[in-house]
Amino acid sequence: MNNNLIFRLDGVSLIIYLALVCFGLINIYSTSYSEEVLPLWNLGSPIGKQFWFFVISLCLMPIVLFIKPNFFDHLSYLFYGISILSLVGLFVLGQTISGATSWYILGGFSLQPSEFAKITTILVVALTLSNIQSDIKSRQTLLKLILFISIPILLIILQPDAGSALVFLGLFFVLIREGLDLRIFYLGLGMISIFIFTLLFDPLWVSISCLILILIGYLIIKNNQQRTPRNPFIVLIGLCVLFSYSANFIFHSVFEQRHRDRFNIILGLETDTKGIGYNINQSKIAIGSGGFSGKGFLNGTQTKGGFVPEQHTDYIFTTIGEEWGFLGSSVVIILFTTLICRILLRAERHNTTFPRAYSYGFASMLFVHFFVNVGMTLGLVPTVGIPLPFISYGGSSLLAFSLMFFIYLNFDANRLS
Amino acid sequence: MIRKIVLLSITLGSALLFLVRLTTLQLLDTDYSEISLNNAIEKRPIYPTRGLIYDRNGTLIVANQPVYDLMVIPENSAAFDTLELTKLLSLSKDELEIQLKKAKQYSRKLPSVVVRHVSKEERAVLQEKLWKYPGFYFQKKTVRDYVIPTAANVLGYISEVNLNEIRFNDSYDLGEMVGRQGIEKTYDNQLRGEKGYAYYQKDRFNRIIGSYENGDFDQKPKSSTDLTLTLDATLQLYGEALMQNKRGGIVAIEPSSGEVLALVTAPNYNPNILVGRTRTKNFSILVQDTLAKPLFDRGLQAEYSPGSPFKVLNALIGLQENAITENTVFSCNQGHYYARGAFMKCHCAMGTQNNLFEGIYKSCNSYFSKTYSRILDGAENSAEGMDRWKSYLNRFGLGNYLGYDLPIGKKGFIPGSTYYDRVYRKGAWSTPTVISNAIGQGEVLTTPIQMANFTAAIANRGYYIKPHFTRLNNEMLGDSLYPKNETGIDSKHFETVIDGMHQVVEIGTARIAKIKGIEVCGKTGTVENFIRLDGQKTQLTDHSIFIAFAPKENPKIALAVFVENGYWGARWAAPIASLMIEKYINGDVQRKWLEGQMLMGSLQEEYNKPLSGKPFEINE
User: Fold this and answer.
1) Taking CB atoms and an 8 Å cutoff, what residues of chain B touch A364?
2) Is the omega angle on the peptide bond into residue A152 within 30 degrees of 0, that is, cis?
3) Which pairs from B382-389 meet CB under 8 Å and 24+ separation?
4) B291-336 pLDDT, tens per residue?
5) Rounded to the nearest 5°, which phi and psi values hold at B491?
6) Are the C-beta atoms of B235 and B584 separated by less than 8 Å?
7) Is A371 an 8 Å CB contact of chain B?
8) Contact between residue B415 and residue B444 where contact means Cβ atoms under 8 Å apart
């Protein structure tokens, strides 16, 4: 059975995982490189810490792989409870680093419970969905699911670490897969579009456009169907107009200036390369200067000069872009995409809900991180401080994503048993 | 089915979006790599040390010396003993505080200059105590060192380029030193050499954190070229000493080569005062002295009436034009009537009969005004005669720039018929109108270097070589030799004139210029001059002028000396010229009494006369 398990492992994903982590280590080394050369395992440097977390992750791999899958569904609630407690405990024992109380300091290592809450939340959502009595169409189950997702979000927002909280919203992809009313999905999509268009243009113009679009939609449907009720369309128009104006109000009165700035920079409504737009501008300069094949390992001038802030954590992709160029960046993007799609496709092969929902949750989590992080460095998404999985510096993040990945491997390998 | 492909398609869509974005950022848009070069890499110029300047005998005149800028990085600085620092560098506390504040405002992490140009000596004292001043350090620079403090007017000076020049000339870098005046300006390219560049990696605070790519892209500077001047430093210094407390100029030229041996202007300044920390203060003192004008090079820029030396040229033109011969005799009765009721005075006795030779050494006004009349009247009309006369003078290098290798100069003025037609109306003037030109007093204006140049042409018996200040090697010059400029006057005509000039020194007006063992030829001049004082044209004491060359055969030196308000030619200019000749040819001066008199003599009192506001006598 043991031998069989190793043969049944998703080898391609494992190779992608190892490749990404090693590439991450190389780039962290580059960002923290200076004239004095420290050995790889020296704990005094970021690369040393990251290296040891990688070692720990690899040690945990066999343990996680050989646990029986039903161990997870038995203990999911417990894990979830512990992680919620650890988030609550932060308000008492947590350490504040750069404004957010998100860390426990344990003998020189800092742990970020919000990273581990990602695993337990996915588990608990998957477990809830797999429950025989639960039906996602029922209001009770839906509320339960929303509750499981919202508790960590709230606790993390209070730290405050809005970026980490945001990624939990990725779990809605799981809900959609498992039967959430699609109208909610379309509604969300519509709201996001209206929100963006409201920022770009005037609420009045957005309202007029909505009116016209919905009218056209109504006329098309009316042509095809004999009887078309008029009222829902009127309500829809009303909702759109209402949302557009309230989005405008929220953006200008509820959001803080720094949040507004982030949106304005991305939407090109403001340019300020010295102040609020500095990060994104420097990030684009670093990536853009890489050219086709990059400047080479340890040769990134922007990386060496430390022009991009948070370069070894959230902005690690700029170093990849600068030193490895279009080739390196594309390879990373393709590896991530392959991994996510592979997980999604293999998740569909599960006959039971729990491992499928879990795999789906893991893929969504990966996707949200990947999309927001890379999008941010490329200047496509507003600045949100979240790491690039497997690559960014950050022990908790590496450990948590590794565990998530190992659990996925476990479920995948045990699919037929 | 749609549920299964939502995330899948969003993932693939995002990946596609990112790849497109990467393509535009990294492959299509090249601006970003340029910005990257600008903000992460600093290109710093490396200047070769500026070329040295030697005199004609290989004596080093201008070298370079290190000075030190005291720098501070505010971030690294801590409390220190301001009192001690201000004492060591003789600054006021306010000055220091202003500089420190400026430094902080500029940047906390980048170095700023606190005190410019700290001398070697000051630095030596401070260096030992520098550990007490965290964040301070010295940065070495090189500035000029005038080993022999002489010829400031020839050498010129250098200074940093200003922002405007950088804007209009890409090749300049901030802080680059360029020649502003004199030799430093003319030969700036050779003296500067070609700068190189070093590339450095900067961090986000603009701090240098190391060389870029191990200096693979660095360009080495090309070394500068040293210059050899034609000046004789000893003669130049001697001339400057002779001219102290006087105003005027000396220009000495080696006739055979056109090399300028000395270009003295008085008053002058010590070039070392324009180096270092007191430069700005000293420079403004020089600029603000509008009476003595120490920055005005009287040798090159002052236009004076040439006076009697000009008679020699009229004689030569008369001979060439066959207006006179060497045997032509004119009578003089303490002067003569050059037109009805118009009398020109002369110091000859009643009934004197002068031939050309006598006319020259007696400096007879009548003789030369009659010669001049014949030159002009010999032609079909005065206008044509005037223009022919002018063209001869132009060929002597008068009335236009000489084209020497210093950036400043004046044309002087030789009037022609068009000038007089404009002033008097066409046909309304004739020879008597312009008769003053005959004796170098009328509208004619020359600069001392032009006078020295025509003296050299006389010494050469008919040609001159463009005066110049540097001995260039062939590479710089292209053609190695300067061409001869022919004056258009046959060399046979010069002998009589030169004999006359020799007699000037032997038995004529400039006997004081006689030197034992050297045959000196010269011509004195005493020039009337006027200024406008309280709105009235007021005559001042005459200028003292002397032109000379020596020896008579194979002349080694030709010179013009001009002493403002020096009473008459033989009083100041002739002795100074003769001392210069003796110094240059014999190496030292025997006539110590004359030397002492000239060195000590001062005309300061004379210069103060018009300023005193009281009535004054001239030529007393």
Assistant:
1) 7
2) no
3) B382/B417, B382/B429, B382/B430, B382/B431, B382/B434, B383/B417, B383/B420, B383/B421, B384/B417, B385/B431, B386/B415, B386/B416, B386/B417, B386/B420, B386/B434, B387/B416, B387/B417, B388/B321, B389/B317
4) 889 999 999 999 999 999 999 999 999 999 999 998 999 999 988 8
5) -65, -25
6) yes
7) yes
8) yes
As a whole number of angstroms, the distance between CA B367 and CA B373 comes to 10
DSSP state of B347: S
- The domain segmentation of chain A, as residue ranges, is 2-180+270-413, 186-254
Q: Flag whether residue A329 sits within 8 Å of chain B, measured between CB atoms.
A: yes
CA distance linking residue A399 with residue A53, whole number of Å: 7
Q: How far is CA A163 from CA A92, A95, A383, in A?
A: 22, 18, 9
Rounded to the nearest 10°, the torsion over CA B71, B74, B79, B85 is 20
Contact of B14 with chain A, judged by CB distance below 8 Å, is answered with: yes
Angle of the B309-320 helix axis to the B365-378 helix axis, nearest 10: 40
d(CA B127, CA B112): 18
d(CA B165, CA A318): 39
Q: Which one-letter DSSP state was computed for residue B349?
A: P
pLDDT tens sequence across B466-497: 999 998 754 555 455 688 899 999 999 999 89
Handedness of CA B110, B115, B121, B127 (dihedral sign): negative
Q: Which amino acid is at A7?
A: F
Strand ranges in A52-205 using DSSP code E only, listed in sequence order? 95-97, 100-106, 109-111
Residues of B with Cβ-Cβ distance to A185 under 8 angstroms: 6
Omega cis (within 30) before B551:
yes
The 3-state secondary structure of B440-474, one letter per residue: CCCCCEECHHHHHHHHHHHHCCCEEECCECEECCH
Evaluate if pTM is beyond 0.90.
no
A301 closest CB neighbour out of B17, B27, B40: B40
Parallel, antiparallel or unpaired: strands B557-563 and B536-550 = antiparallel
Which residue, among A417, A415, A411, A341, has the nearest Cα to A72 in the 3D structure? A411
Q: Is B600 on the interface with A (CB under 8 A)?
A: no
CB atoms A337 and B15 under 8 Å: yes
Q: Give me the average pLDDT of each 10-residue run along chain A (417 residues).
A: 73 95 92 67 79 94 90 89 94 84 83 94 93 81 91 90 89 89 82 82 84 86 78 84 84 78 74 72 86 86 79 90 94 96 94 92 96 92 89 93 95 83
Contact A292 B41 (CB under 8 A): no
What DSSP assignment string belongs to A199-216?
Answer: HHS-HHHHHHHHHHHHHH
CB A269 within 8 A of CB A199: yes
Is residue A360 within 8 angstroms of chain B, CB to CB?
Answer: yes
CA gap B231, B254 in Å, rounded: 10
Can you list the domains of chain B with their CATH numbers? 44-229 (3.90.1310.10), 237-287+301-612 (3.40.710.10)
The two beta strands, A100-106 and B330-332, are unpaired
**Strand-pair category, B227-229 with B53-54:** parallel
Tokens describing residue A410: 């476990």
Q: How many CA atoms lie within 13 A of B93 on its CB side?
A: 5
The pairing of beta strand B484-486 with beta strand B463-465: antiparallel
Q: Three-class SS of residue B246?
A: coil
Contact of B1 with chain A, judged by CB distance below 8 Å, is answered with no
Distance CA A47, CA A27 (A): 9
For B452-610, strand residue ranges (E) read 463-465, 470-471, 484-486, 521-533, 536-550, 557-563
As a whole number of angstroms, the distance between CA B465 and CA B251 comes to 15
- Let me know: does B384 contact B417? Beta carbons within 8 Å: yes
Exposed e or buried b per residue across B101-123, where buried means at least 16 C-beta atoms within 10 angstroms of its C-beta: eebeeeeeeebbebbebbeeebb
A220, two tokens: 């098309």
Tokens of A279: 């990060």
